[in-house]
Design a protein that fits this description.
It comes from Bradyrhizobium archetypum. With 166 residues, the chain is an alpha+beta fold. It has 3 helices and 8 strands; from the N terminus they run H-H-H-E-E-E-E-E-E-E-E.
Length: 166
Protein backbone atom coordinates (compact mmCIF):
# COMPACT_ATOMS: atom_id res chain seq x y z
CA UNK A 1 0.00 0.00 0.00
CA UNK A 2 1.22 3.30 -1.03
CA UNK A 3 -0.10 5.92 1.30
CA UNK A 4 0.77 9.61 0.98
CA UNK A 5 1.73 11.04 4.34
CA UNK A 6 -0.22 14.11 5.23
CA UNK A 7 1.49 17.02 6.96
CA UNK A 8 0.23 17.37 10.51
CA UNK A 9 0.14 21.21 10.22
CA UNK A 10 -0.48 22.57 6.75
CA UNK A 11 1.16 25.80 5.58
CA UNK A 12 -1.54 28.45 5.56
CA UNK A 13 -1.67 32.04 4.45
CA UNK A 14 -1.65 33.18 8.07
CA UNK A 15 1.62 31.35 8.80
CA UNK A 16 3.28 32.83 5.72
CA UNK A 17 2.12 36.35 6.73
CA UNK A 18 3.46 35.84 10.27
CA UNK A 19 6.82 34.57 8.97
CA UNK A 20 7.17 37.57 6.60
CA UNK A 21 6.27 40.06 9.34
CA UNK A 22 8.70 38.41 11.77
CA UNK A 23 11.52 38.39 9.19
CA UNK A 24 11.12 42.06 8.26
CA UNK A 25 10.62 43.02 11.90
CA UNK A 26 13.98 41.49 12.81
CA UNK A 27 15.68 43.20 9.85
CA UNK A 28 14.22 46.60 10.79
CA UNK A 29 15.20 46.18 14.46
CA UNK A 30 18.78 45.26 13.56
CA UNK A 31 19.05 48.22 11.16
CA UNK A 32 17.73 50.66 13.77
CA UNK A 33 20.17 49.31 16.35
CA UNK A 34 23.13 49.64 13.99
CA UNK A 35 22.12 53.18 12.98
CA UNK A 36 21.76 54.23 16.62
CA UNK A 37 25.13 52.78 17.63
CA UNK A 38 26.88 54.28 14.61
CA UNK A 39 25.54 57.77 15.21
CA UNK A 40 26.48 57.62 18.91
CA UNK A 41 30.07 56.49 18.33
CA UNK A 42 31.24 58.59 15.40
CA UNK A 43 29.56 61.91 14.71
CA UNK A 44 31.21 62.16 11.29
CA UNK A 45 31.83 65.89 11.26
CA UNK A 46 35.23 67.52 11.04
CA UNK A 47 33.98 71.10 11.46
CA UNK A 48 30.69 72.47 12.74
CA UNK A 49 30.09 74.61 9.67
CA UNK A 50 31.77 73.99 6.33
CA UNK A 51 30.76 77.46 5.15
CA UNK A 52 32.47 79.19 8.09
CA UNK A 53 35.56 77.02 7.64
CA UNK A 54 35.74 77.93 3.96
CA UNK A 55 35.61 81.66 4.80
CA UNK A 56 38.54 81.25 7.21
CA UNK A 57 40.64 79.31 4.68
CA UNK A 58 42.40 82.37 3.21
CA UNK A 59 43.31 83.55 6.72
CA UNK A 60 44.77 80.11 7.48
CA UNK A 61 46.95 80.28 4.38
CA UNK A 62 48.20 83.76 5.30
CA UNK A 63 48.93 82.65 8.88
CA UNK A 64 50.88 79.63 7.61
CA UNK A 65 52.99 81.83 5.33
CA UNK A 66 53.75 84.22 8.21
CA UNK A 67 54.71 81.25 10.38
CA UNK A 68 57.11 79.99 7.69
CA UNK A 69 58.77 83.42 7.49
CA UNK A 70 59.40 83.42 11.28
CA UNK A 71 61.24 80.04 11.03
CA UNK A 72 60.67 79.13 14.67
CA UNK A 73 62.00 75.84 16.00
CA UNK A 74 59.44 74.32 18.36
CA UNK A 75 60.16 70.94 19.93
CA UNK A 76 57.52 69.08 21.91
CA UNK A 77 57.93 66.07 24.16
CA UNK A 78 54.80 64.20 25.23
CA UNK A 79 55.11 61.49 27.89
CA UNK A 80 52.49 59.17 29.33
CA UNK A 81 53.06 57.54 32.73
CA UNK A 82 51.94 54.05 33.74
CA UNK A 83 48.76 55.42 35.36
CA UNK A 84 47.80 57.26 32.14
CA UNK A 85 48.72 60.83 33.14
CA UNK A 86 50.36 62.84 30.36
CA UNK A 87 52.95 65.59 30.55
CA UNK A 88 53.76 67.92 27.68
CA UNK A 89 56.93 69.99 27.41
CA UNK A 90 57.49 72.50 24.61
CA UNK A 91 60.78 74.27 23.86
CA UNK A 92 60.46 77.27 21.56
CA UNK A 93 63.36 79.05 19.83
CA UNK A 94 63.53 81.60 17.05
CA UNK A 95 65.63 81.12 13.90
CA UNK A 96 68.80 82.31 15.66
CA UNK A 97 68.28 79.95 18.63
CA UNK A 98 67.09 82.59 21.11
CA UNK A 99 64.39 81.43 23.53
CA UNK A 100 60.87 82.66 22.77
CA UNK A 101 59.38 84.02 25.98
CA UNK A 102 56.09 85.60 26.93
CA UNK A 103 53.96 83.49 24.60
CA UNK A 104 50.77 81.66 25.44
CA UNK A 105 51.09 78.02 24.34
CA UNK A 106 48.24 75.54 24.35
CA UNK A 107 48.24 71.93 23.36
CA UNK A 108 45.40 69.67 22.32
CA UNK A 109 45.35 65.93 22.14
CA UNK A 110 42.75 65.04 19.53
CA UNK A 111 41.52 61.50 18.97
CA UNK A 112 41.41 60.97 15.18
CA UNK A 113 38.30 58.82 15.45
CA UNK A 114 36.27 60.56 18.17
CA UNK A 115 36.19 64.29 18.91
CA UNK A 116 34.58 63.65 22.28
CA UNK A 117 37.87 62.25 23.64
CA UNK A 118 39.87 65.43 22.87
CA UNK A 119 41.90 66.95 25.71
CA UNK A 120 43.18 70.51 26.10
CA UNK A 121 46.55 70.97 27.79
CA UNK A 122 47.23 74.44 29.17
CA UNK A 123 50.95 75.17 29.14
CA UNK A 124 52.74 77.65 31.34
CA UNK A 125 56.25 79.01 30.93
CA UNK A 126 58.63 77.49 33.49
CA UNK A 127 61.90 78.95 32.19
CA UNK A 128 62.92 81.00 29.18
CA UNK A 129 61.31 79.37 26.16
CA UNK A 130 60.25 76.17 27.98
CA UNK A 131 56.53 75.57 28.51
CA UNK A 132 55.02 72.67 30.47
CA UNK A 133 51.56 71.35 31.19
CA UNK A 134 49.66 68.24 32.24
CA UNK A 135 46.89 66.63 30.25
CA UNK A 136 45.53 64.30 32.91
CA UNK A 137 44.61 60.69 32.22
CA UNK A 138 44.73 59.84 28.52
CA UNK A 139 44.22 56.42 26.99
CA UNK A 140 46.79 54.70 24.81
CA UNK A 141 46.66 54.77 21.04
CA UNK A 142 46.96 57.26 18.20
CA UNK A 143 46.41 60.95 18.89
CA UNK A 144 46.93 64.21 17.02
CA UNK A 145 49.03 66.67 19.02
CA UNK A 146 48.05 70.22 18.07
CA UNK A 147 50.29 73.00 19.39
CA UNK A 148 49.25 76.64 19.14
CA UNK A 149 50.96 79.78 20.33
CA UNK A 150 49.55 83.25 20.47
CA UNK A 151 50.53 86.71 21.63
CA UNK A 152 48.37 89.80 21.75
CA UNK A 153 45.35 87.77 20.63
CA UNK A 154 47.02 86.70 17.38
CA UNK A 155 48.05 83.16 16.54
CA UNK A 156 51.76 82.99 15.80
CA UNK A 157 52.40 79.26 15.60
CA UNK A 158 50.39 76.12 14.90
CA UNK A 159 51.45 72.55 14.27
CA UNK A 160 49.63 69.23 14.03
CA UNK A 161 51.47 65.94 14.50
CA UNK A 162 50.35 62.33 14.86
CA UNK A 163 51.65 60.68 18.06
CA UNK A 164 51.24 57.19 19.44
CA UNK A 165 50.94 56.78 23.19
CA UNK A 166 51.59 53.40 24.79
Amino acid sequence: MNRASASPKPLTGRKVLFMLLAFFGVVICVNLTIITLASMTLPGTEVESAYTASLAYEKEIAAAREQDVRSWKVDAHLARSADGDTALEVKARDRSGKALTGLKFTGRLERPTDRRADRVIALSEVTGGVYRGSGGAVGPGQWNLVLESEADGRRLFMSRNRVVLN
